[in-house]
Amino acid sequence: MDEHEPVEDSEFVYRRIPGTFYDAGLPVPVQREAFRPNSNDTNGLSVFRACFAHPIDTLFNLDPTRAKNYYVAQISVRSLRDLGLSVTPDPLPGGPVGHGVLLELNWAAYRAQKEIWKAILLELAKLASSDIVHRPNSA
Whose CA, among 49, 64, 65, 109, lies 20 to 30 Å from 58? Predict the structure, then answer.
């Protein structure tokens, strides 16, 4: 399998979650802001394909001090597609392998229809909250 190949419904992806967007005391611990794109997300929101990467690999380009405060969630591609999202391969020069983007969830689309995206971001937060595969204290 090559990281450039289309993403299958049977795959899973990882999304890193800053600790500031996680509160174990809430009914949905991952806050929807963990999925809100920013101005750097011109091609879509970053994820990593689980068939290529390990959860810890998602923290590769963070300052080690900051990386200690991140969670990593696993989400099924089928669940993403059920929300109208697609995962597109987007390999990064220098790795790690398996980078992809949620193409529809890009900065321009989000800014154009913030109210519509809020419900989808909440559903993403629920999916992420149900399967945390890396916690800050497991580094």
Answer: 109
